[in-house]
Automatic annotation (TrEMBL):
Lineage: Eukaryota, Viridiplantae, Streptophyta, Embryophyta, Tracheophyta
Catalysed transformations (reactions): L-cysteinyl-[protein] + hexadecanoyl-CoA = S-hexadecanoyl-L-cysteinyl-[protein] + CoA
PROSITE patterns noted in UniProt: DHHC
Name of the featured protein: S-acyltransferase
GO BP term, pick one: protein targeting to membrane
Subcellular location: Endomembrane system
Domain Palmitoyltransferase DHHC: 161-278
Molecular function as annotated in GO: protein-cysteine S-palmitoyltransferase activity
Membrane topology (UniProt): Multi-pass membrane protein
EC number annotated for this UniProt entry: 2.3.1.225
Length: 340
């Protein structure tokens, strides 16, 4: 290493100077996220490009039935578009919801305007300033946001127990601080490395549509690859490449199909991955039976809230509601569609 240092140092300086001029690549986290996105796009292009380059019969079929390839390319483009839309969407941050509540409260109560600075480990606090005075909203008890959060918890809950140790903001139920995004996310599900963002309240539906389109695209591509292998004999190296790609495609299909089924179940029961996996570590869910979904409002209402963008904050159910939801299903309940 000591011998190579004189040769590597000029290269490192030139690389750092180049990255400074490109803000999107200067941050290591954003740089790795962009590389993953590029790798995903290249992987999609490889699977479709192999058929165009090596399968003459596939090209003839495309010329004979242009609608077939037109539908496939439409699905291919829609999948990549949905990927970038989901990647660039906001999962629903607590700071943004807090700002909306403060602005709405100031608009209806008095002409004084509130402003919120972004909360992070660097700022160590959320500052809510009120124009026309030296007092701050954070010092008033309770703040509009703090009162809203307290109303979502059972009576007697202390607001100190609800404050995030990193953002120093009051967290509504189903909220978790994401260490990758350095923000608190509403209805936190998980942080997706491939998308480079969290999955939460506002983009869970977009994420479901993406994995649904990805599953359909994988199935269609798998059918075309099997059809390619079933044709006349080809050179061994072409068959070796197609079998390798077919194995990768089959593994990817199993993964995205299981992911689609899992998130469909989460949406129908109004749960998140974090709540399902870390149920015993969430204080307000420890005493709730495993088979009871505390935030479920029925299948129809759950689908409506996710698909139609109903971003209301969920409150913790009362003891009476939990007792009612823990009742075993009877034949009458089935006829009345209690689960819906």
């Amino acid at each position: 290493m000591g011998v190579c240092c004189p040769f590597l140092q000029p290269w490192d300086r030139a690389r750092d100077q180049f990255l400074i001029n490109l803000p999107c690549l200067s941050d290591p986290v954003r740089r790795s996220s962009l590389l993953l996105k590029l790798a995903l796009v290249v992987l999609h292009l490889v699977f479709i490009g192999f058929l165009f380059l090596f399968d003459a019969e596939f090209i003839e079929k495309t010329k004979r039935d242009p609608w077939y390839m037109g539908c496939y390319l439409l699905l291919f483009s829609a999948t990549l578009l949905q990927y970038f839309v989901t990647s660039g969407s906001s999962p629903g941050y607590v700071v943004d919801a807090m700002r909306d509540v403060c602005e709405t409260s100031a608009m209806y109560r008095n002409p004084l305007a509130c402003s919120i600075q972004h909360a992070s480990r660097k700022s160590e606090s959320v500052v809510v300033n009120v124009e026309g005075g030296s007092a701050s909203c954070a010092r008033r008890t309770p703040t509009p946001w703090g009162k809203l959060v307290l109303d979502l918890y059972p009576p007697g809950t202390s607001i100190r127990n609800l404050t995030c140790g990193y953002c120093h903001v009051e967290q509504p139920p189903r909220t978790k601080h994401c260490h990758d995004c350095d923000r608190c996310v509403l209805q936190f599900d998980h942080h997706c490395v491939w998308l480079g963002t969290c999955i939460g309240q506002k983009n869970h539906c977009k994420f479901w549509w993406y994995i649904c389109e990805e599953t359909t695209l994988c199935i269609w591509t798998l059918i075309m690859y099997v059809d390619y292998l079933s044709n006349v004999a080809k050179p061994w190296w072409k068959n070796a490449i197609i079998i390798l790609l077919l194995v990768i495609l089959a593994i990817s299909l199993i993964f995205v199909l299981l992911l689609l089924i899992f998130h469909s179940y989460l949406i129908l029961t109004n749960q998140s991955t974090y709540e399902l996996v870390r149920r015993r570590r969430i204080p307000y869910m420890r005493n709730i039976p495993e088979r009871v979904h505390p935030f479920s409002r029925g299948i129809r209402r759950n689908l409506y809230n996710v698909c139609c963008g109903n971003y209301n904050l969920d409150s913790l159910p009362t003891a009476f509601e939990l007792e009612d939801r823990s009742r075993p299903y009877t034949c009458i309940d089935m006829l009345k569609c209690r689960c819906c």
